[in-house]
Amino acid sequence: MQAFVLERYGKRGALQAVDMPMPELRDDEVLVEVHAAGLNLLDAKIRNGEFKLILPYRLPIVLGHDVAGVVVKAGPRARQFKPGDEVYARLDDFRIGALAEYAPVKEASLALKPKGLTMEEAASIPLVGLTAWQALVTKADLRKGQKVFIQAGSGGVGTLAIQLAKHLGAFVATTTSTTNVSLVKGLGADVVIDYKTQDFEDVLREYDVVLNSQDGKTLDKSLRVLRHGGQLISISGSPDPAFGQEIAAPAFVKLVMRLLSSRVRRKAHSRGIAYAFLFMKANGSQLHEITRLIEAGAIRPVIDRVCPFESTNEALAYLETGRAKGKVVVKLK
Ligand SMILES: NC(=O)c1ccc[n+]([C@@H]2O[C@H](COP(=O)([O-])OP(=O)(O)OC[C@H]3O[C@@H](n4cnc5c(N)ncnc54)[C@H](OP(=O)(O)O)[C@@H]3O)[C@@H](O)[C@H]2O)c1
After folding, report:
1. Rounded to whole angstroms, how far apart are CA atoms 169 and 183?
2. What does the pLDDT look like over 44-72, one tens digit per residue?
3. Would the CB of 196 count as within 6 Å of ligand 1?
4. Is the torsion defined by CA of 96, 99, 100, 101 positive or negative?
5. Beta partners for residue 277, in sequence order
6. Where are the beta strands (DSSP E) in 77-157?
7. Is residue 156 lining ligand 1, measured as CB closer than 6 Å?
8. What is the largest CA-CA distance in the chain?
9. Would the CB of 195 count as within 6 Å of ligand 1?
10. Which of the listed residues 23, 88, 207, 258 has the most CB atoms within 10 Å of its CB?
11. What is the mean pLDDT of residues 108-136?
């Protein structure tokens, strides 16, 4: 099968298109014929070597986290899905490989593809949809009437998080640049701050939840727009010790996480704000909940562009410009 393989870490290095043997299927996995694969900045960051501490992959690996396709074979302990099912998933860490013609997927990470979505649309959802779910539902327990600030509303995570927060009944503020103001308003954002002309710190007050996806300076400013008792959930920057514990990181990695996050944890504590770093995980049952919201019309995919599989390196380079409006997907079938 054809696959895009990471042979050595390196900034902006290219993935190699290679012919590989079919992947071996584990008992609790199904084999998916990949029709489309969603790209994520995580793919670029792993390629660059930025995730070596958190995800110490031994190379070579097939890259890619999000798939949509058709089940062609089920392992002996996989009982929920059968050949012919149209499915989608965020592949598990250390079992990634969406950028290939076939991908083995743990059954517990899989969900049926939402009816009415194309394969490309479905492949755009899992990683960012689950990130929004795990931040707003699992961690924040966001409630009707609460105020949430979702940064970068026009990005992959932002476009889904705005829609999910609106579905939960929250009041949503977001940041974007001038050209994307109508996009985020169309997704339901109540307050849109054009970060090119305004500073969100001058506009937002007493927010219940902030979903931070930007740099350290933005993380600091986020603390100042939260109310006492509010929650700051960060999906970028340095992981905190709780996350180190969760992934059973080696002691020195936990120490690095403790040191790097100490400033924001201390500041949050002094303001009575709960701070948490989130690194999303594959989860088939949460993805099933997202399927239901998509089928009910509460959430729709936002796709910037669909590229041919052969152009995977160029598609990833485009995503890395940081200008994508929603998702970038590669099409295999
Ligand atoms: N920890 C986790 O589990 C997790 C999960 C998913 C993503 N992430 C991380 O979260 C970040 C966002 O991911 P993503 O997939 O949403 O990225 P993305 O799709 O590449 O985001 C691109 C968008 O960001 C907007 N943007 C850029 N700079 C901005 C700024 N200063 N203020 C507001 N908007 C800005 C751009 O809009 P303009 O063109 O208008 O500037 C563009 O639409 C990345 O660092 C990613 O690695 C972490």
Report:
1. 19
2. 999 999 999 899 999 999 999 999 999 99
3. no
4. positive
5. 234
6. 86-90, 102-106, 110-112, 147-150
7. yes
8. 58
9. yes
10. 88
11. 98
Amino acid at residue number 255: L
Q: Does this model's pTM top 0.85?
A: yes
- pLDDT band at residue 24 using 50, 70 and 90 as cut-offs: very high
What is the spatial distance between Cα 281 and Cα 53, in angstroms, rounded to a whole number?
A: 17
The atom number, within ligand 1, closest to the CA of 319 reads: 20
- Residues 215 and 264: their CA atoms lie apart, in Å, by 12
d(C-alpha 207, C-alpha 320), whole Å: 30
User: pLDDT of 280-327, one tens digit each?
Assistant: 999 999 999 999 999 999 999 999 999 999 999 999 999 999 999 999
Instruction: Return the residue matching tokens 């704000």.
Output: 273
Residue type present at position 236? S
For the stretch 74-100, pLDDT in tens is 999 999 999 999 999 999 999 999 999
Per-residue tokens: 294 = 């998509």
